[in-house]
Amino acid sequence: MRTQVAVIGGGPAGLLLSRLLMRAGIDAVVLERRSRDRVLSRIRAGVLESGTADTLRRAGVGERMDREGQVHSGCYLSAGESLIRIPFGDLCGRNVTVYGQTEVTRDLYDAQEADGAVILHDVEDVALHDLDGDAPFVSFRHEGGEHRLACDYVAGCDGFHGPSRQAIPAEIRREFERVYPFGWLGILSETPPVTDELIYANHERGFALCSLRNPMLSRYYVQVGLDEKIEDWSDDRFWDELRARLPQGTADALVTGPSIEKSIAPLRSFVSEPMSWGRLFLCGDAAHIVPPTGAKGLNLAVGDVHYLSEALIAFYRDRDRGKLAGYSETALARVWKAVRFSWQMTTLLHRFPDNTGFDRRMQEAELGQLEASETGRRLVAENYTGAPY
Ligand code: RFL
Ligand code: PHB
Q1: Does ligand 2 lie within 6 Å of residue 219's CB atom?
Q2: To which H or E segment does residue 211 belong?
Q3: What confidence score (pLDDT) does residue 158 get?
Q4: Looking at the domain assignment, is residue 230 inside a domain?
Q5: Residue bearing the CA closest to ligand 2, atom 10
Q6: Residue 368 resides in a domain
């Protein structure tokens, strides 16, 4: 088998990259470890930056997002009883779209399959070879047979646990990490959302987030300790804890119901540099992880894919290798800004087990400054809606 770009991983990064390449007349084959249904059962991010929405439209998969997604021109931070609105639209002229990652992935699958894209599911033992030479290839097992996919370039879009990042020699890689001493317990419920804009709540019992997917589907999270077990969290316990962390008016308005999904996700910040080596280019979670507090994970993956697709298109169209050579540096500059913002939001809004009275006062002072200062709110708005590419 031969292709121009071997794409490892059929999550949002891999699918979007293959879509953008295919539309530019470049051949790509996607190798995905899981089944289509398994990939589409993941409930993850919900907030798309305006640059992400534009990229999806450019890829020809924006139609359902524009019809069903909700454009939000602001969000709230709450501190005890006070609610601070961050009106993104007014402060920086950009908005976000609330549309689930599951739906983005479904739209990409549908479009790629309709256009005859090659996406192999349930592949096993993917391994990358000769990335530092002129003839890289990927080996894998599929439907009982051993296969070899020869290519010009390999795009590692295989998430945090995939093999692509590890294919960069350890002496070249530099990893930067912060693991947070808590996780998020999230539920999805078929109930009307408590507000029409997201609320990020700082409370002495811990952080909480009110989010949504559509007018009859809500997504809520509460900060929990790393030793918490999902089976100890009945729906009633979850709703009680969420209510306790929200301002009274919001808590009173909360409509509860049975959860249709419940899971705990750990929080970490992680960046691996460089994001390319030889013929290998990393995109998305394969290269970096952010805590979900800034809603950046999926958006960063789309940003990487934007840069890499432009670089590959420039190469195949004009034989210009300049953008490929600059990919890692260009992508990392944007990644680090989002890593910083996600870390700052996480630090501002969560209860850390070793928080002292001093740390608590620092959070209160920062929230107070956001309440008092339009400049402070504008900075949050600019970061939340995402740096332009
Ligand atoms: P993905 O979505 O992890 O997709 C990678 C794909 O690669 C496949 N894969 C392999 N394929 C072939 N061979 C192998 N050996 C492979 N190993 C892995 C996987 O099966 C998968 O299909 O990475 P991608 O495309 O870079 O997209 C990134 C986003 O998914 C991610 O940044 C966000 O979802 C992060 N994230 C969240 N971000 C938010 O902004 N808000 C959230 O609420 C939010 N919740 C989450 C999250 C990530 C989570 N993870 C990774 C555990 C909740 C969770 C649980
Ligand atoms: C979500 O809706 O799942 C969501 C929204 C905003 C975040 C994180 C998660 O910051």
Answers
A1: yes
A2: strand 208-214
A3: 98
A4: no
A5: 295
A6: no
Q: At residue 43, does pLDDT exceed 90? A: no
- The pTM (predicted TM-score) of the whole model is 0.97
Q: Three-class SS string for 260-316? A: EEEEEEEEEEEEEECCEECCEEECHHHCEECCHHHCCHHHHHHHHHHHHHHHHHHHH
Distance CA 25, CA 20 (A): 9
- Ligand 1 in contact with 382 (CB < 6 A)? no
Q: Could you tell me the residue range of the domain that residue 14 belongs to?
A: 5-55+100-177+268-345
Q: What is the pLDDT of residues 300-359, one digit of tens each?
A: 999 999 999 999 999 999 999 999 999 999 999 999 999 999 999 999 999 999 999 999
145's tokens: 């047979």
State the distance from the centre of ligand 1 to the C-alpha of 145, rounded, in angstroms.
27
Q: Can you tell me the mean pLDDT for 357-379?
A: 97
Number of domains in the chain: 1
Q: To test ligand 2's pocket by mutation, which of 47, 104, 350 has the most ligand atoms within 8 angstroms of CB?
A: 47
Q: Residue 45 has what pLDDT? A: 87
- 388 within a domain of the structure (yes/no): no
What are the backbone dihedrals phi and psi of residue 349, each rounded to the nearest 5 degrees, phi first? -105, -15
The SS3 call for residue 188 is: strand
Nearest Cα residue to atom 52 of ligand 1: 265
What mean pLDDT comes out for the span 186-197? 96
290 to each of 226, 239, 265, 343, how far by Cα in Å? Answer: 17, 26, 12, 8
Q: Is residue 294 in a domain? A: yes
Give the domain CATH number at 166. 3.50.50.60
